[in-house]
Specification:
The protein is of the alpha+beta class and 215 residues long. The protein is built from seven helices and ten strands. The N and C termini lie far apart (45 Å).
């Protein structure tokens, strides 16, 4: 069996969100996700991909020329099982893009973000020829004594009286990577296309929750 044996179909939000909550590293869904695909292999559901409007439209809309408010979309969740054959992820992305181009021909490009602290730097985007357009370092993440990771923003919202303790925890060297895939021809890119080697140069690589800790 190979990646050619996977099948991709639309999935309703309820089932998609149930799967994401169980299998995505964040255990959270993106509430404005509107389009979900499920990948099944040997007649079992193994992977869910969710697309929806970006929550940062104002900051992103001008990255590709003449983009209107509804002409780009964010791939905001990918939750999958390691049981899938090799190259299944990039094949599933390619199929989903074909479906988007067919069913939503007004879309010009796709954006997605890889959280290099909590998951990985997403080699599959590079295998799918997404442009690496930004690598941003942040120090909002810290690791607690129980070895769980917390964001300063999230922690402050829930436990504002414990921020003093939070600040004593070890900082994580956290990188957010932004990937863009232009799916219509002859559009000007108003962003710098970074070489994939930039990830290694900035020590932003990440694989299966192995984190780089700041001394």
């Amino acid at each position: 069996m190979s990646a050619k044996d996977i099948i991709l179909k639309p999935l309703n939000s309820k089932k998609a969100n149930e799967f994401v909550k169980k299998h995505h590293y964040s255990w959270k869904v993106v509430n404005n996700s509107q389009l979900h695909f499920w990948v099944y292999y040997n007649w079992f559901l193994w992977w869910v991909m969710s697309y929806g409007p970006s929550t940062k439209k104002c900051n992103l809309i001008n990255l590709v020329e003449w983009t209107k408010w509804n002409e780009f979309i964010e791939l905001n969740r990918m939750a999958f099982s390691d049981i899938l054959p090799k190259y299944s992820e990039s094949r599933a992305i390619a199929i989903s893009i074909k479906l988007l181009k067919k069913k939503a021909p007004h879309l010009k490009w796709i954006v997605s973000f890889a959280d290099g602290c909590q998951c990985w730097d997403w080699t599959i985007y590079r295998a799918s020829w997404f442009d690496l357009s930004q690598v941003t370092e942040n120090t909002w993440m810290r690791i607690a004594p129980d070895w769980k990771t917390y964001s300063q923003v999230t922690y402050y919202a829930h436990k504002p009286n414990e921020m003093k303790e939070f600040k004593t925890w070890t900082k994580l060297k956290w990188f957010m990577l932004r990937y863009i895939k232009v799916i219509q021809p002859n559009l000007q890119k108003n962003y710098e296309v970074l070489p994939y080697s930039k990830i290694d140069e900035m020590w932003a690589w990440m694989y299966k929750w192995i984190k780089k800790i700041v001394d």
